[in-house]
Design goal:
single chain, elongated, about 150 residues, 2 domains, mainly alpha
Length: about 150
């Protein structure tokens, strides 16, 4: 792998790790905000059959809280993760239909995720949803552009 690909991939890993810790830290406010337990502690409620207490809140619920109320680091986390998956796909798949299909599937997964968040009333979740929508559309557009360019060259 060349330096042109290694350095951006390493930066993406670094941004991803920093964003994980920052999102986790910001989401830990959930423990002190008992009014949000009913709506935000979805994993804890699922694991403990609806019983949510201060001591049994799941770490995954911290990320849910962070997405809903402080979405900057979750967005950085999502974008860097998508970049890493994209870069791995670019290295493993030959340019052409398989690579374009892979990028399109990534875009569709993001669009489905945006659809799942579309009903959230919080402004943070709406910002996160819009970022998923934007990145998903960009990925699908990139795949379509490359496919049409390939067809025109052939």
């Amino acid at each position: 792998m060349s330096y042109k690909r290694t350095i951006p991939f390493g930066l993406a890993i670094m941004f991803f790790c920093i964003a994980i810790f920052a999102s986790w830290y910001e989401g830990s406010e959930l423990v002190d905000n008992s009014f949000e337990w009913k709506h935000t502690a979805v994993f804890t409620s699922w694991i403990h059959d609806g019983e949510v207490e201060r001591g049994n809140i799941s770490q995954l619920d911290y990320f849910v809280y962070s997405i809903k109320f402080k979405p900057i680091f979750p967005i950085i986390m999502m974008v860097s993760f998508i970049y890493m998956i994209f870069a791995i796909g670019q290295n493993l798949l030959k340019p052409g239909l398989k690579q374009n299909l892979f990028v399109s599937i990534l875009g569709v997964i993001l669009l489905v995720g945006a659809g799942l968040l579309s009903g959230s009333p919080t402004s943070g979740a709406k910002v996160f949803m819009m970022s998923q929508l934007l990145v998903g559309i960009l990925l699908i557009g990139l795949a379509v552009f490359h496919q049409f360019r390939k067809v025109q060259l052939d």
